[in-house]
Specification:
- This protein has helices at about 5-20, 30-50, 55-80, 105, 110-125, 125-140, 145-160, 175-190, 190-200, 210-230, 255-290, 305-320, 325-350, 360-370, 375-385, 390-420, and strands spanning about 295, 300.
- The chain is an all-alpha fold.
- The chain has a two-stranded antiparallel sheet with strand order 1-2.
Length: about 450
């Protein structure tokens, strides 16, 4: 049933599109057909995936597969690290069972295993067929040309820099609009390896977490394409037709070779994620110490989280979140932008049941599911500087705008989800407001410890 809270989410849709149009490089070239089509595609996908019993059951099956993958990964982690991996048999008296969930042993290894499996599935051509299929869908429904459509589809599964590798020889000939779109879509989505990691973090506080995370990354791609086209409109006269180089395709000599190389790639990602989290969390802790010198304001010390919650609370409300939860949700949006989405998901997973509304938790899962953060700016500059060095200066001039497009794309996706009936996701309408919960700095709850 469509309620007032669903209508509230329409404000978020208008806000995301309106802000991008306001800073567009050519406001007179607004893609009306694409705007309507992208939002309709998103809404239809959500309704079909969660409303059709067979597909809903398939999504639940994905969740079971993620649980099985996580359990299998823990077996490997326990073999290497022993009781440090959080095995039931501990050599000491356990007073806090929740402390067994250690991010380095429970989440990062999942990325390693998924990267190895992805390489194996690519070698078996299964993942390649899926990627090509999505590429055709994007080409036919979003008006993209073949190579950019393929790269967009690959980005959904492989990641923000890994996806464009598949059209590396084509990158120099892309128009400015197409290159900007690839960067923006990369920041609007996440990779297959991190999808599983996010689902692992949220599985104790969000039913069917894997279903929501997978859906979020897929349907955020059309949102990223739309907002990128608004910010940097398409100029057909600047598009050059150039053939793809078949030699750039990923090739593994055997299944074992795929597993080994996939594991090596996964190790690089794990090290980058871990190192980034350490540095950014440390920087925010230092900022909080400095801000704390100002004393308490309204009964609590000033912190980065409180400031971000205040700034982004109106955006959270526009997405359809009740005002009682808006400060907490706004803080999560700010944490995602400043501290990476991994930290934001850890904070969301650490938010106790009942502290925020079930509907808020679902909407925020979609709003956080994207790589649009400050760290990704550096990742994209470094990655594209290797892939297409001759356009490095051009990329430097557009990467911050692309981050904005990616950030607003996930907000647009969350707003579309918020406009859907609450019963579609298995929870009822929003109950009476509860006291405002504001995230404070410090270690997460017992369930998750970064």
């Amino acid at each position: 049933m469509f309620r007032l809270e669903n209508a509230q989410s329409l404000v978020g849709i208008a806000l995301a599109i309106g802000l991008c149009w306001a800073i567009s490089e050519n406001r007179g070239r607004f893609p009306w057909k694409l705007a309507i089509g992208a939002i309709v595609v998103q809404a239809v996908l959500v309704l079909v995936l969660f409303g059709v019993p067979a597909l809903r059951a398939a999504l639940i099956g994905v969740g079971h597969a993620v649980d099985g993958l996580s359990a299998a990964t823990q077996a490997g982690v326990a073999f290497v690290f022993g009781f440090l991996a959080g095995t039931p048999n501990q050599p000491y008296t356990l007073t806090d069972p929740g402390s067994l969930f250690v991010f380095a042993f429970r989440v990062l290894p999942v990325i390693l295993v998924v990267c190895a499996l992805a390489a194996l599935l690519w070698h078996w051509r299964i993942l390649k067929w899926i990627t090509q299929g999505f590429g055709v869908v994007f080409e036919k429904t979003m008006g993209l040309r073949g190579p950019p459509a393929l790269a967009t589809a690959a980005t959904v599964f492989m990641g923000q820099v890994e996806g464009p590798i598949f059209i590396r020889s084509y990158l120099p000939s892309l128009s400015r609009s197409e290159l900007f779109m690839l960067i923006a879509v990369g920041m609007a989505c996440v990779s297959g390896s991190t999808m599983v990691a996010y689902a692992t973090i949220l599985k104790d506080v969000l039913p069917n977490a894997a279903s929501h995370v997978l859906t979020a990354s897929i349907i955020s791609a059309p949102a990223g394409v739309l907002l990128a086209r608004i910010l940097v409109p398409r100029m057909p006269e600047t598009e050059v037709v150039a053939p793809l180089d078949p030699a750039q395709d990923k090739v593994y000599e055997s299944s074992v070779d795929a597993l080994i190389k996939g594991t090596t790639d996964g190790l690089n990602i794990v090290l980058n994620v871990g190192a980034t989290l350490i540095v950014f969390v440390a920087l925010v802790a230092m900022l909080n110490s400095i801000l704390g010198l100002a004393g308490e304001v309204h009964g609590a010390p000033i912190s980065v989280e409180r400031v971000l919650g205040f700034v982004f609370a109106p955006v959270a409300w526009a997405m359809g979140i009740r005002w009682a939860d808006a400060p907490t949700a706004g803080s999560l949006l700010g944490v995602k932008l400043v501290l990476t989405e991994f930290t934001a998901f850890i904070r969301l997973g650490a938010t106790p049941l009942g502290a925020i509304d079930d509907r808020t938790r679902v909407i925020m899962t979609y709003a956080l599911c994207g790589f649009a953060n400050i760290a990704s700016v550096g990742i994209n500059v470094a990655g594209y500087s290797v892939l297409v060095p001759e356009r490095r200066q051009e990329i430097m001039g557009m990467v911050w705008k692309a981050m904005f497009a990616g950030f607003m794309a996930t907000c647009l996706t969350a707003s579309v989800v918020g406009a859907m009936p609450s019963e579609l996701f298995g929870h009822e309408a929003t109950p009476a407001p509860k006291p405002v919960m504001t995230l404070q700095p410090g270690p997460p709850s017992a369930k998750v410890a970064p």
